[in-house]
Amino acid sequence: MLKRVDDRDGQSTGADAGNAAAPQEHLGKSVRLRNLQLSFGPRRVLQDLNLEVPARQFLAIVGRSGVGKSSLMRLLVGLDKPSGGEVLIDGAPVTRLQKSVQLMFQDARLLPWQTVLSNVGIARLPDWRDASLEALRDVGLEDRQNDWPAVLSGGQRQRVALARVLVRHPSVLLLDEPFGALDALTRAEMHGLLEKLWLRHQFTTLLITHDVAEAVALADRVVVMRDGRVTFDVDVPAPRPRERIDAELAALQAKILKEV
Predict the structure, then answer these.
(1) Is the overall model pTM greater than 0.70, yes or no?
(2) Burial of residue 1 (number of CB atoms within 10 Å: 0-12, 13-18, 19+)
(3) Phi-psi map region of 212: left, alpha, beta (phi>0 left; psi -120 to 50 alpha)
(4) Which of 60, 87, 84 is nearest to 72 (CA)?
(5) Closest CA to 122 of 149, 96, 150
(6) Helix extents (H) in the chain
(7) Where exactly are the structural domains of the chain?
(8) What are the two backbone dihedrals, phi and then psi, of residue 42, each rounded to the nearest 5 degrees?
(9) How far is 215 from 18, CA to CA, in rounded Å?
(10) Quick one: 195 exposed, middle or buried, by C-beta within 10 A (0-12, 13-18, 19+)?
(11) Is 28-100+172-260 a domain of CATH 3.90.226.10?
């Protein structure tokens, strides 16, 4: 059973119960958003957003469409620049693309003319074949390395997409509705896989989801975004592994839903 420890005083989160042998340089990093603002012309997407995510925490961000969740992810990875305020990774301002921060989308975006192995190693980093094979082993698809994306199921394609970000050894993993298009059974399997990988690799994780049940099942903490700000912030104190049918978690889901 996973023991959760509050990280706000710099202590470790429940991810410490995972693989203690994870390389130090690849461990999760803290994320801090300070008075963050983003505007497109007269339209304000994010306004005075403040948020602190301790290293190795699993945070879920929920909110209605158009509240700025995906825009926030682009700022975190360094794809866009804020109109005001700053993004800090381990205390350092984000001013360019962050190699230690990896983003996974709902669409797997696999290249159909490349094999599974080649899709995972698309950046062609040093020793990419061995590293890609190890990442595929992590997601349970080592035996599909020579297949083409067209023969994979939706869940398998998302596993390949997950392996593609794992091969870069992220310290911060950003997930933008990665399981939204999957059926319920496949989604539950992906939840189990993601939790196992988070415990093993100890990366900080930020998950965007419209599914409050998914947020409560996976995260240490859930925040609600509305009108470009964080308007609600709650810990999920339940031990892991979590029961899908649990009265306490159901009550917490209902409380979050009222804030969305």
Answers:
(1) yes
(2) exposed
(3) alpha
(4) 87
(5) 149
(6) 69-77, 116-120, 128-138, 154-166, 184-201, 212-218, 247-259
(7) 28-100+172-260, 106-169
(8) -80, -10
(9) 20
(10) buried
(11) no
The letter for the amino acid at 98 is Q
DSSP 110-172: --TTS-HHHHHTTT--TTHHHHHHHHHHHTT-GGGTTS-GGGS-HHHHHHHHHHHHHTT--SE
Residue-wise pLDDT for 39-58, tens only, equals: 988 888 999 999 999 999 99
Q: Tell me which amino acid residue 166 is.
A: L
Q: How far is residue 112 from each of residues 85, 116, 129, 152, measured CA to CA in Å?
A: 40, 9, 18, 11
Using an 8 Å Cβ cutoff, are 142 and 72 in contact? no
Distant-in-sequence contacts of 32-35, Cβ < 8 A, 24+ apart:
32/87, 32/88, 32/91, 33/72, 33/85, 33/86, 33/87, 33/88, 34/85, 34/86, 34/87, 34/88, 35/84, 35/85, 35/86
Identity of the amino acid at 107: D
* Model confidence pLDDT, tens digit, residues 143-190: 999 999 999 999 999 999 999 999 999 999 999 999 988 899 999 999
Q: Enter the tokens of residue 91.
A: 């205390």
